[in-house]
């Protein structure tokens, strides 16, 4: 299952909203999103393990979380390239995904995605980012290698984004936000709420936000 247009548009809108919340003039700021991808990619390599001189275990859960973080910056880079135009960013990204490429070219060489392992894919991700490029076929292959579907990425992305927005709107910066709701962290409530919203809905972010708000109000009333 690949990414739907509604899901992609939702994530682009959420990312634009978060970037604007951090800096209302973020397009003009021209942040180096590719450097962020490169650094997060290096962290993913650490979670995978790469040192041949010592025993290491792959921390797949952390690696998946790094992919979600990387996706934030992939979306931001595409939005930056399109001067914040969500429709154009969605059009180009969907077109690239629909190509269903089987290989990636870097430094004059083609790498067949099915023939390289997860660690090698992460190397290429970092190399492309250093060259200020991304590749959605490569990202799709990384998801598959980590046992993640696009739907799971979507769930984790919108969950993290909406919760961050919710925290900011309810006093996170001032310190008045209550993170423990009825004995459990807001993250735990988020997991439950994600199971109740319709992920294919055009209003999924609003439904998720309102569901979190309803639970939060119960904490304040208690």
Structural commentary:
- The protein has 222 residues and is mostly helical.
- The protein has 2 domains: 5-146, Type II deoxyuridine triphosphatase (all-alpha NTP pyrophosphatase fold, Orthogonal Bundle); 151-221, no CATH class.
- The chain is built from 10 helices and 4 strands.
- The protein has helices at 5-22, 26-29, 33-48, 60-81, 86-98, 118-130, 136-145, 150-169, 186-194, 204-221, and strands at residues 103-106, 109-112, 180-181, 184-185.
- The strands form 2 sheets. Strands 1-2 form a two-stranded antiparallel ribbon. A two-stranded antiparallel ribbon has the order 3-4.
- A hairpin with a 2-residue loop joins strand 3 and strand 4 (184-185).
- Helix 4 crosses helix 5.
- The N and C termini lie far apart (43 Å).
- The model has no long low-confidence stretch (mean pLDDT 92).
If you compute it from the alpha carbons, what radius of gyration comes out, rounded to the nearest whole angstrom? Answer: 18 Å
Overall structural class, as computed from helix and strand content, comes to mainly alpha
How many structural domains does the protein architecture include? 2
Question: CATH-wise, what's the superfamily of the largest domain?
Answer: Type II deoxyuridine triphosphatase
Write down the CATH class of the largest domain. Answer: Mainly Alpha
In CATH terms, what is the fold-level topology of the largest domain?
A: all-alpha NTP pyrophosphatase fold
Number of helices: 10
Give me the oligomer status. Answer: single chain
Shape estimate: globular
Number of strands: 4
- Cα end-to-end separation: 43 Å
Beta-strand portion reads 5-15%
Major β-sheet annotation: 2 strands, antiparallel
Strand adjacency order, main sheet: 1-2
Average pLDDT for all residues: 92
CATH architecture of the largest domain: Orthogonal Bundle
Secondary-structure element order, N to C: HHHHHEEHHHEEHH
Q: Indicate the low-confidence ranges by residue numbers.
A: none
- Please give the share of residues in helix: 55-70%
